[in-house]
Design brief:
Elements: H1 13-33, H2 39-56, H3 63-70, H4 79-94, H5 103-113, E1 130-133, E2 136-140, H6 147-160, H7 165-179, H8 186-201, H9 210-216, H10 218-231, H11 235-251, H12 262-270, H13 277-283, H14 289-302, E3 306-308, E4 321-323, H15 325-336
Antiparallel strand pairs: 1-2, 3-4
Helix pairs in contact: 1-11, 2-4, 2-9, 4-5, 6-7, 7-8, 7-11, 9-11, 10-11, 12-14
C-alpha cells in the first residue's frame, strides 16, 4: 500500500519563531476586533484583501471603487475589472460556508470567483499551463491528466496534517500554485483558500488583509514561489507568507502616534461622535479658523487620528469629522495615563 502524500517542507527555527509570534499577536488582537465598534474596520480590511488579491492579477480598481461596488453604486471602469470585484465580494462573503479540505467546496469557490471570466469555471483545467514572467516561462505546471490526483492528495494531506494552520495554509498555498489546477484564477484562488484555512483556525483571519500585504510585496511573492520550486522545498514560501501575515496583523493593530501635539490631543478630547468643523472649533473655544485648521485639524487628519465623513468631498458643507480606531486608541492611552 502506497504511503500517504506529504509535501516536502523544512521546519526552520525562523518559521517556528514566527508562528509563535503571530499566534501571540492574534490572541491580543481578538479582543479588539470582536467589539461592535470595529465592524467598520473589518469591512475596510475585507475590501483591502479583495483589492490586493485582484491588483496582483492586474485589476485596475481602487479600494474606493470596490467599496462603491459593494454599496451598489455605479462605477466607471473596465467591465471585466468590475465583474472580478463582484465575484470576489461574493466569494469572500461565502467563505464561512466552505470547508478547506473539501474538493466540492474548492470547485464551488472557483466557480464563484471566475463566473463569467472563464468558460471552465469550477472545473479542473483540461490543458497545459505555464507561469510566465514577461516572455519567459518560469514554471510549467504538471499535465492536466495529473491534476485530479495531485489535488486529491493535497486536500487529503490538508485534512490529516498535524502541522500548525499557519504553516499548513502556507504549504497548501505553495503546492496549489505549483499544481496550477485551473486554467485561470489560480493566484486569487490560492490566496482565498489560505485565508479560508486560517479563518478555520481563528475567525479573525477572515478580516485580516493578508492579500493586501502580498500585493505590496508582489515581486518577492513570485520570487519565493520560484525559490521553493527550485529547492523542492516550500520553506522559502512559508517564510515569506508568515512575514506577510505578521505584517497584516500589525496593519490592523492601532499604533499610538509617537508625537501627538498638545493641540491635537485637545482636539481628540473635544471630538464627540461626528462634528462639523464649526462645531468642533466652537467646542474648543477657538476663534482663528486658519490656526485651527493648520495646528489642530490637518495634523490630526495626517496622523490618521480623525477622518472625514465625506472623504471624496473635503470641502462639502455637510462634512463631519470623527475619531478613527487609531485616534480612539491614542485617546484611551492618554486618559489612562
Amino acid at each position: 500500500m502506497a504511503s500517504a502524500y506529504s509535501p516536502p517542507f523544512t521546519l526552520t527555527p525562523a518559521i517556528l519563531t514566527r508562528v509563535a509570534e503571530i499566534a501571540e499577536r492574534v490572541g491580543r488582537l481578538a479582543v479588539r476586533l470582536e467589539t461592535e465598534r470595529d465592524l467598520r474596520l473589518r469591512r475596510i480590511n475585507r475590501i483591502r484583501s479583495i483589492h490586493g488579491s485582484l491588483a496582483i492579477e492586474g485589476n485596475t480598481l481602487s479600494e474606493a471603487q470596490i467599496t462603491a461596488i459593494l454599496d451598489g453604486k455605479r462605477v466607471m471602469a473596465p467591465p471585466r475589472d468590475i465583474l472580478e470585484a463582484r465575484n470576489a465580494l461574493k466569494a469572500y462573503d461565502a467563505l464561512p460556508g466552505w470547508q478547506p479540505a473539501r474538493e466540492a467546496d474548492l470547485l464551488a469557490a472557483h466557480r464563484t470567483l471566475m463566473a463569467g471570466l472563464a468558460d471552465d469555471a469550477g472545473r479542473w483545467r483540461a490543458g497545459g499551463v505555464g507561469v510566465m514572467a514577461g516572455e519567459q516561462v518560469i514554471h510549467m505546471a504538471p499535465s492536466a491528466s495529473q491534476v485530479p490526483r495531485l489535488m486529491g492528495d493535497l486536500l487529503h494531506w490538508l485534512d490529516t496534517t498535524d502541522a500548525h494552520p499557519l504553516i499548513a495554509s502556507s504549504i497548501f498555498h505553495y503546492e496549489f500554485e505549483f499544481i496550477h489546477p485551473f486554467s485561470d484564477g489560480n493566484g486569487r484562488m490560492g490566496r482565498l483558500w489560505q485565508t479560508l484555512i486560517l479563518s478555520h483556525w481563528n475567525p479573525l483571519f477572515a478580516d485580516i488583509p493578508v492579500e493586501s500585504l502580498v500585493h505590496e510585496h508582489q515581486a518577492a511573492y513570485y520570487a519565493a514561489l520560484q525559490t521553493s520550486t527550485e529547492q523542492a522545498d516550500s520553506a522559502p514560501f512559508v517564510g515569506f507568507m508568515l512575514d506577510r501575515i505578521l505584517d497584516a496583523i500589525r496593519s490592523v493593530t492601532p499604533q499610538v502616534a509617537p508625537h501627538v501635539t498638545p493641540q491635537v490631543e485637545r482636539l481628540l478630547r473635544g471630538l464627540r461622535a461626528e462634528m462639523s468643523r464649526e462645531a468642533l472649533q466652537q467646542a474648543l473655544g477657538l476663534q482663528d479658523r486658519k490656526s485651527f485648521r493648520e495646528r489642530y485639524l490637518k495634523p490630526a487628519l495626517a496622523e490618521g487620528l480623525i477622518e472625514m465623513s465625506i472623504p471624496d468631498k473635503p470641502n462639502s458643507r455637510l462634512q463631519r469629522y470623527r475619531l478613527t480606531d487609531t485616534g480612539r486608541a491614542v485617546l484611551a492611552r492618554q486618559q489612562a495615563g
